Amino acid sequence: MQSFVLGFSLAMLFSVWWAAGAAEAQGTAATSVEDRAIARITLAAKQRHLVQQIATASCFTLSPHNPQENAATAWLGMVEFDGSFATLIQGDPRREWAPEEDASVLAAVAGMQANWSTFRAATQQIISGDRHSVPMRQMVELSAPVLTEVNAAVDRIIAAHAKGLDAQKAHVAGFNEVDQQPMLIQRAAMAMCYISLGIDEDRMRSDLRQTINLFETALDALEKDLSGTVQADPESPVLLPKINEIRALWDQFAEPLRKVAQGAEAEAEDVAFVENATGQLTEMSNALASLSKAREQ
User: Which residue pairs from 258-265 have beta carbons closer than 8 angstroms and sit at least 24 positions apart in sequence?
Assistant: First the structure.
């Protein structure tokens, strides 16, 4: 879809990213229908993480905690997101991907364009230093609808390209429980950020309580699953220490989150700690997700 081609303000940055992606793709062209489908599903699933990362980094550009670094993260995330969806819909000869033809996918992607375009434009203004009330309101109000619509579009892409695949392979390549953890970390940090800025505090506190519960439930379930398979699964002894490392940092990360979720003020020191720890905890959870997927394949 031509509407996913970036505007002139992003064109140069996008060309650099696209060239790097093209070089990688040329070296890793898929060799079978199944490989191509799994690669497409994997790229689609990544967009869930990416749009949450954009929303979180965008909020932190409004705070005094590493605003320039977060602005760069949000900017590059938008470039990658646009490029990825262009590839998913238009296809990519280097990867032997045909243009998307599934009507349900095209409809879902068309359905997300309006909110995404407005959210992206507002976010670009904010990270460029424009603190006008209109883009700020649009960024805050549209973050949840954009996440919902992107998830719906990704669900359709995965469903369309999982047809005929082994169910386990499709599940692993797509989006399973362990994949949620990096997103939940970003989501918790975003809620903390908005609360610290006095924006939509009641809704964000409610969302923060839910996010903490979801993360801890998922981590507990994964640990229980691995603990029960230590003897039968040679990968379990490798993964369990990773979970322990994540849990140790999460306990520190979640302490100020719990206080704020229950109504306490978001102290500057706590917000700075959450912002700084988000990247490390996300990377650790991404690594765990990759190891977990390799174990299931």
Answer: 258/212, 260/192, 260/195, 260/205, 260/208, 261/205, 261/208, 261/209, 261/212, 262/205, 262/209, 263/205
Give the 3-state secondary structure percentages of the chain, helix then strand then coil, rounded to 5: 80, 0, 20
The CA distance from 146 to 144, in Å, is 5
Would the CA dihedral through 47, 53, 56, 61 be positive or negative? negative
The alpha carbon of 52 is separated from its chain's Cα centroid by a whole number of angstroms, namely 4
**DSSP state for residue 177 in the 8-state scheme:** G
Strand-pair partners of 92: 97
Q: Where are the alpha helices (DSSP H) in 197-235?
A: 201-227
Give the C-alpha separation, 14 to 192, whole Å.
Answer: 31
**pLDDT on residue 255:** 97
Neighbours of 237 (CB within 10 A): 11
DSSP reduced 3-state for 142: helix
Contact 40, 161 (CB under 8 A): yes
Which of 31, 149, 5 has the alpha carbon at shortest distance from 85? Answer: 5
Q: Choose the weakest-confidence range: 7-21, 81-95, 186-200, 277-291.
A: 7-21
Do the beta carbons of residue 271 and residue 193 sit within 8 Å?
yes
Sign of CA dihedral 123, 126, 131, 132: negative
Residue pLDDT, tens place only, 51-79: 999 999 999 998 887 889 999 999 999 99
pTM: 0.82
Which amino acid type is present at position 81? F
- How far apart are alpha carbons 2 and 21 in whole angstroms? 19
The token pair at 158 is 């995965």
Contact 42, 170 (CB under 8 A): no
